[in-house]
């Protein structure tokens, strides 16, 4: 008899003998085989379990749980000389694994790492396919994407269930870093198509806590407009990540927000932010602004706001004279924008408009905008 010289063998195989039919029988204490359950037998002793497996032609091996006195019959087994037994069986001190019959080739269990599905044993343990985590189902929604990432540090980018009022919403979470904004846990709030009037400055979408738009398009980064309940439903926003997609590439910049409230609340009054002009302009290559004087932040508009001057829900306005707010503005870069003075395109709701004194000439660039919060 040939036995591979491998230490784990001697730890594993507590006993090995051959039956009169030539079957090799062996027992491994403190291990069990997961994913091949044929039948589960409750309230049994060890002998009862052996009888069940012997009487079932498909049963090759079984796991006996010594604490719970139940067992699982398996329709697979392992090559008893296999030196990868520890990659197939799973360690658990409450179990004894015993193989009663010699498996044919198609009855050999695969290493754990190559299994993609499993049955749960009668102890409801399932290691191969983990139980749903927070945000995975409607029944266990999270309050924000960051909460999910804090609990599940390998969570992937994609949609999760968030508890938003009045209903749970399936929302895209960006769990990995957004270059320019930093580490993950970003919750999608809004996607804006700059060529469309939907989210222009005066749209009631910005000032309502009951309107949403195309929630189903908020599951991913596709270029389809959406407004999600996370706009008012994430109550405390600390950081905002803004993205502009242009010519196939999205550039990002982040803003710190100290208002201790939702993004919707931020729209009630003007809040100043403190990026510099070049940080804003990085959002859109080839953009242009009047830079003699600038105003930036949330709800930026001119004191003469009924006029056709630049406005932005989130963004920066440029002026050609140093008395910001008293002279005219003919340039803007941001999200939820409007204004036609100097010939700017009023309908450009996300992107850049610059006329007259722009530092990079006259520009009219529409972008596809993303707004995330954390
Ligand atoms: C917003 O402003 C545009 C013109 O700038 C106007 O046509 C539109 O009716 C306004 N919408 C609302 C909701 O006030
Ligand atoms: C924003 O806040 C983060 C973390 O608190 C800090 O590291 C970063 O420097 C801040 N950025 C700005 C522009 O204030
Ligand atoms: C932020 O708001 C929450 C609830 O609205 C409040 O409990 C908390 O004290 C506030 N924190 C700060 C720093 O204002
Ligand atoms: C703008 O801010 C960034 C980041 O703080 C800095 O690296 C850059 O030098 C600043 N640019 C100007 C023109 O001040
Ligand atoms: C910048 O925009 C101007 C005007 O639209 C255009 O002529 C120029 O090619 C653009 N430059 C780059 C580098 O995209």
From TrEMBL:
GO cellular component: a single term:
extracellular space
Coiled-coil segments: none
Q: Does the keyword Lipid metabolism apply?
A: no
The record, for InterPro entries, names:
Pan_app
Keyword annotations for this protein?
Disulfide bond, Signal
Gene Ontology MF term list: oligosaccharide binding
The Apple domain covers which part of the protein? 28-77
Would I find Cell membrane among this entry's keywords? no
What Pfam families does this protein map onto? PAN_1
Q: Which residues form the signal peptide?
A: 1-24
Would you say which domain of life the source belongs to? Eukaryota
The family database entries (PANTHER family) matched by this protein are listed as: INTELECTIN, INTELECTIN-1A-RELATED
Task: Please state what the protein is called.
Answer: Apple domain-containing protein
UniProt source species: Exaiptasia diaphana
